[in-house]
Amino acid sequence: MTSSNDAGAPSARTLVKRYRHLAHYDRETIDAILDAMPVAHIAYLHEGQPIVTPTLQWREGDRVYWHGAAKGRMMRATEGADVCLTVSILDGLVLARSAFNFNVNHRSAMLFGKAEAVTDPKEKIRLLTRLVNGFAPDQWDKLRPATESEITATAILSLKIEEASAKVRSGPPEDNESDYAHPVWAGVLPIRLTVGAPEPDPRNSPGVAAPDLSGYSIG
Amino acid sequence: MTSSNDAGAPSARTLVKRYRHLAHYDRETIDAILDAMPVAHIAYLHEGQPIVTPTLQWREGDRVYWHGAAKGRMMRATEGADVCLTVSILDGLVLARSAFNFNVNHRSAMLFGKAEAVTDPKEKIRLLTRLVNGFAPDQWDKLRPATESEITATAILSLKIEEASAKVRSGPPEDNESDYAHPVWAGVLPIRLTVGAPEPDPRNSPGVAAPDLSGYSIG
Ligand SMILES: Cc1cc2nc3c(=O)[nH]c(=O)nc-3n(C[C@H](O)[C@H](O)[C@H](O)COP(=O)(O)OP(=O)(O)OC[C@H]3O[C@@H](n4cnc5c(N)ncnc54)[C@H](O)[C@@H]3O)c2cc1C
Ligand SMILES: Cc1cc2nc3c(=O)[nH]c(=O)nc-3n(C[C@H](O)[C@H](O)[C@H](O)COP(=O)(O)OP(=O)(O)OC[C@H]3O[C@@H](n4cnc5c(N)ncnc54)[C@H](O)[C@@H]3O)c2cc1C
Ligand code: HEM
Ligand code: HEM
């Protein structure tokens, strides 16, 4: 997390104005947020109505990708369209001495741009392999192979990471200097995502070896 | 979770079409999702561009509320405007026998409507008290009292819960019947939000009593 404050906003609309001391525009900070949290919320227009759909995203280099039904509303409405993709992580509740200074610790990234379709079937398979293996290393090759019609039914869209900003807050509350003497407890209630033990499908064939998911973390 | 499938969609645009067997339109299911997860993602238009902003929401009866800077872009762009408010909870990663049937366990709610401003200062204070006490019971009265200018600087918007849908997935993968014999481990990697021990602000006055936050859960 190198840059902070106003320097480096890639465009007027990505310049953080509220709580601007939390702003970051460097790729290191943005990529770390994208890589920590696979759930994105994507905003787009559909028949004049703004819609936000929760969707998995994954990053490779300068792009984030998402997938869904080639015939679905979300994928059709976002293809070639201006979208806003936001990833947010809640890290805690910040209890201050005044209600006004309550806050949450968080990391969030907001990306703007035109969503582009990945059309080459080989490239689609490569990207879907990464999606699967990003959760469960080497799992793709153990699965019942994907069929051509499954790949055709699957659309993949991507967004270049170029018009993006991040906001990151951590640590104790920031109260007005005159409020520190007010005799009330202040501090942080930490919140985080945890991964539990894998739950085998009751219909698993006897003797199938469980994949090693111990390396997977989220948030 | 009573209703499922197509019955009960309050409008054409809230009719779930993809994975429609996961759809719910009853208030019990929708309210439970809103109450479990304070983080919402709100989509709105700003200068023709769809934007999605992560924001805290809280529910009272038939309405969800959110707050922010009266002068801020998000609050000004959403006031009186058509918005889409989505709350989503990731409950796990579902590993299937085919890549195509990988999924996530989740609960999500999507609300459409026009955002309305709460203008009466007394009502604003009442709602902000609920926001604060919803995280930390009885905390409001212990805080340095809110000032008139703080209340003026704070905008509160709300959305009536009337055009809404939910999707809920839980349990093991649903593979194609012919894939169950494929010899690969399938199951669920559970994911959940956990609350840690409160971290006191190093600048706390000596002897201030920690609030009882043990009742707080999220997700
Ligand atoms: C978990 C969570 C909960 C939040 N709860 C609240 C809340 O209850 N009330 C509230 O007012 N705000 C909340 N925020 C902050 C909120 O996301 C916005 O940053 C804030 O509301 C200001 O929005 P704006 O459009 O008015 O800001 P502006 O500063 O005018 O936005 C200008 C530009 O700054 C960048 N930007 C703005 N917000 C973010 C962001 N979150 N992440 C990355 N870039 C951003 C974007 O490029 C945007 O186009 C929360 C954020 C998180 C992550
Ligand atoms: C954590 C998480 C991760 C997800 N990951 C993916 C992914 O990687 N790829 C993917 O395609 N989908 C994903 N989904 C599902 C996604 O949110 C959409 O439901 C799906 O993409 C279909 O969108 P659509 O607009 O084409 O659906 P349609 O069924 O055409 O939408 C019509 C209406 O159904 C309702 N609806 C749609 N989605 C939801 C929802 N999530 N919650 C409540 N109501 C809804 C709304 O009222 C909407 O207006 C994910 C959902 C969650 C919660
Ligand atoms: C880690 C791997 C994957 C995960 C976690 C995942 C998750 C999801 C989720 C959550 C949905 C939305 C379901 C809903 O609407 O409720 C979805 C839809 C979809 N996925 Fe995946 N997916 C993965 C890999 C794949 C792969 C490899 C393919 C193709 C071979 C694929 C094809 C599709 C298609 C076509 C849809 C749309 C289904 C429809 O709306 O009818 N997915 N996926
Ligand atoms: C549980 C209680 C509360 C929490 C968790 C909370 C959280 C937040 C968060 C996360 C933001 C966004 C900060 C950012 O842009 O990065 C915010 C903004 C704001 N909050 Fe709260 N808040 C709470 C209560 C209140 C109360 C009671 C008031 C008024 C008395 C208030 C007034 C404001 C205002 C005015 C802003 C906009 C600040 C700005 O953009 O300049 N908040 N709040």
Automatic annotation (TrEMBL), chains A, B:
It holds the Pfam family Pyridox_ox_2. It comes from the Bacteria. This is Flavin-nucleotide-binding protein. It comes from Rhodoblastus sphagnicola.
